Amino acid sequence: MLHDPSLARATGADPRPASAVSTGVGIAGLAGLLAWVAVARWFKMDGPLSALTNLVACGVPMVLWSIFVDKVHRRPSTGIDWAQHKPWRETFDISLTKLAGLWVTWVGIALIYFTCRFYWNDRFAFSMSVLGAVAPFVFIGSIPYVLYFDRKLVEPRDGAWALGAWMMGTERVEAEAIYSHLRSWAVKAFFLAFMLAIVPPGFGDFIRADWAVILTNPVALANWLITFMFVIDVAFATVGYVLTMRPLDAHIRSATPYAAGWTAALICYPPFVLMDAGRPLDYHPGTADWTHWLGNYPVLMAIDGVLLVALTAVYAWATVAFGFRFSNLTHRGILTHGPYAITRHPAYLSKNLFWWLSTLPFLTVGSWVDGVRATVLLAVVSGIYFWRAKTEEWHLSADPDYVSYWQWMERNGPVPLFFRWLSGRPINAGVPVASKARP
Fold first, then answer.
1. Radius of gyration (Cα) for the chain, nearest Å?
2. What is this structure's pTM?
3. 3-state SS assignment for residue 277
């Protein structure tokens, strides 16, 4: 029987598809983060080690909640059969081959880090010091980890094994398995280095903020709260890149195979970012921030400040909803709860609205030409994020669970419903539009 949206709404029989992550995971991580932030502010611990401890305080409660409450390790999607006890001799060769593929991948990543001077300057030098310190422990720990879980995995021959088997010429392997493995590690290598680089600055700024200034200056209060929202976002995102593990059901199912997806994402991050100062899409010349234009209008400035804090809170909420599964360019389970029950792309929507309200690009301290340029360039930046959203839909719509979620949002999501009302188009009850347009 075909789905009848009007009948479903009338009877209330259109339940939201289940989310791969529970709300409790994010709350647990947020509670741990808030506890450490309170301790850090009390004892004035604003350094890099305190910032890294914040990641632990955020991550550990999420892991404990996921194991003992949600029991994610028991899900079939992990690919693990805990009742299975394969003999060592049955999986030993597989494990050695997998370790060979894994270690070669890590060596390749290390060579890229070593070769690119970009990774040894400014904030990224901190990332390299952290990764260099943990590398020996990860290398040693990978041995018992792989040996143990290969005995439990339903199919232990994964992408790392395929790469190892191809290198040693022991078996014929599917090339796509190797490509998928390399794409997944490319995502982790690129974004984990970036996330680690930005962990200490924002955390330190938030902890060092002076109460006397915050409580007497509304603009300072708004900026402090905005900084805190970004501290939350960065902490959850960094933990997500670290905990890509099967036993937690947080492994990467797939990284996008589309060049358009990679291009749209990479031009938003260093060293490829196009929006930084002096880059082609830098929309700041000739503009001033919201406090400059609204300084003589306290009511308007207060409204704008509240909106900016609220938008940043939505942005942070969109990351918290992932628990420890956040990752660009990847599929690690479909989210349907929290802000993802309102819009399919809450982070992109809130981020872009924040930029428009904080910059007000159509107001200029230069010539009218500067105002036009800034407005056009920021519109292009927003267009890039729309492009990113569509490429993510191309990728995720290969999963029937995402198609179900996409269709449910077409029928029930407040933001899709608003834009449909605005455009006058009917409900799309079929597959995602992005699926039809997939290259």
1. 23
2. 0.94
3. coil
